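Hi support team,

I'm opening this ticket because the web form for multi-chain structure prediction keeps timing out on my end. I have pasted the exact lines I submitted so you can reproduce it. The total is 408 residues across two entries, so I didn't expect it to be a heavy job. Is there a limit I'm missing, or should I split the entries? Thanks in advance, R.K.
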Amino acid sequence: MSRPLWIVIPFKFSDCKSRLADCLSPSERMGLAMAMLQDVLEAVAGRGRITIISRPGFLAQGWGGGAEVRISDLDLNEALNEMIGEQAKGWAEDMLIVMADLALLQPEDIDAISAIPGDVVLAPGRGGGTNMILMRSPAFRTCYRGISFPKHQKMALDLGLTAGYFYSYRAGCDIDEPSDLVELVLHGRGRSACLAREMKLVDI
Amino acid sequence: MSRPLWIVIPFKFSDCKSRLADCLSPSERMGLAMAMLQDVLEAVAGRGRITIISRPGFLAQGWGGGAEVRISDLDLNEALNEMIGEQAKGWAEDMLIVMADLALLQPEDIDAISAIPGDVVLAPGRGGGTNMILMRSPAFRTCYRGISFPKHQKMALDLGLTAGYFYSYRAGCDIDEPSDLVELVLHGRGRSACLAREMKLVDI
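Hello R.K., no limit was hit. The queue was backed up. Here is the completed structure from your submission:
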């Protein structure tokens, strides 16, 4: 019997998607980031309680789907690990961290990662990142920044936690750099893909 | 009742992996390309008849697993489409094209693509490529080069063939550019991953 899911989506909105600055204006980047967040919210809808975590200044209303918004001054890992710590007492829900730029994500991907056994399940992102983390233990802590995947593997190992892996094309695809935009245009089905096609971001 | 599989692996051996020239010598590139081909051969072993297609000069012996080697002067699409044409009379086997640099590929990925319905099943590669194509119809023709995925989609549509899609992290990961090497080092389990780790190609 699996516990209900608490889905946590970190969203960086100030100077968001800065690595796309060469091909998009600041307002275009913001528009694309918001559209991707909406696509992610649609993918996770109905799969559990949803919290968007962002920084002061982020608009807390109007996200639909009953998503709660939590504002924090802390950096990404501190904010996430604070939430894990609060949740630790009782651990009534498993926790699923989902990056806000997984524009290809589909509901079946949430079901698929949920079906993989392990105290922690890691979904790799292209380039060494960790695009989703499912935690079934209160002991785990995130160590994002840089090539985080082996850090998360080591964290699980050091804590004596069993690790599962969710290798997924869609979950592995975070839209960060200009070369990622072709993924969005070719394989996306949501509003961010429509936006990218309308903006003719990729010449195909 | 599905037909047996004919697995065709195109392998470019002259000036292979040229986009890795900035970080690998010609002989290192050749060694890595050969190791990846061996990993792919292991992933497809036992799943059907295997043919490696390459250019004049490629060593035809010693590939193990009963793989046949076919040498052709034609370019990639001409060579593949010639083989499809020969196979068309009778179509006793379905045809699965597998790129030789899918270093993360596992046997279960071959089973997974085989389970997807469609006259043709396309496995996208990162950046718009098509890393595997399963053909259950003699009508299809390949159109590799550049962003081939939408070309293959259009080909299926124009021919009135149903298309299935196999979205897979491992099958989507062809090792072409320096930025792909981190995938091999972090997620590979075969001899090419060992080689990449020994060569310390990525600083993690």
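A quick check on our side: The beta strands of chain A are 5-10, 49-54, 68-71, 94-98, 120-125, 129-135, 163-165. Let us know if the file doesn't open in your viewer.
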